[in-house]
Amino acid sequence: MPSADTPDNPPNAKLVESKQKWAEEGRLLTGVAAPRADRLPPGQREVKNWPVLDLGIQPEIALDQWELTIDGLVAHPTTWGWAQFKSQPPFTDVSDIHCVTAWSRYDNHWEGVSARHILETVKPLPEAKHIVFHSYDGYTTNVALSVFDDADVLLAHSWEGKPITTEHGGPVRVIIPKFYFWKSAKWVNRIEFVAEDRPGFWEERGYHNEGDPWTEQRYS
User: Fold this and answer.
1) What Å distances lie between residue 2 and 99, 120, 188, 194, CA to CA?
2) Which one, out of 110, 124, 160, 198, has a CA that is 20 to 30 A from the CA of 8?
3) Which of 146, 152, 147, 135 is nearest to 202 (CA)?
4) CATH number 3.90.420.10 given to 18-46+60-194
5) Could you report the per-residue pLDDT of 173-200, keeping only the tens digit for each?
C-alpha cells in the first residue's frame, strides 16, 4: 500500500526520541486509577481545541488516489476507493477523546463508517483475534478485535460537520474513544486482521500494548 514513510520522508527522529523518553521515565503517570463513570481519566486535563500530534509527517492524499484495504484473516477481503467508502451506510457518533500526552476533549461529533459495519462486510475468520492498522505515513498500531467491535468505534471522514483535515488524519482516520488516541490511527489505508497480537509503532517504543486511560495504561 502507498506510504509516506520513505527514506526521503522519515518520521521526525527527535520527536520520536522525546516521546520514547517519556515512556522510559513514566512521564505524566499519577499512579491513580479511576472508574469509567469519571468522565476525565486520571492525569488528564480538558482542552477546548484539538492539538495536533504526528510523527512529523502529514501525507496529502488526493481523494481519487485514496484506498482502504481490509484484509488478513477475513472471509471477504475488501478494498474501497473514496466513492465506495462514502457509499457505505453513514454512521454518526459523539464521543470524548483522550491523548496520552494528558489532554482530553469532550463531545466530538464524528461521521463515517462504523466498525461493526466493516466487520459485517468482511466477516473475520474464527482465528482472527487482533487488528493492525496501517497508515499512509508508515504508522501502525494494534488493538484486540474485541476493542474494534464496539458500538462507538468508526472510521471517520468528518468532525464537527466538516471533512477531517489532513493534520488531524484526513481523509479518513480511526476513532476508538475508550482508549488513548494513539490507537486511533490517522491516514488509515489498511485494516489487517491477524491471529497473534502484533505491537505497532509506539507499542514497540515503550507505550502500553492496550492503552486504557482510566487505568493509566500509558506505558509498558
Assistant:
1) 27, 26, 11, 21
2) 198
3) 135
4) yes
5) 999 999 999 999 999 999 999 999 999 9
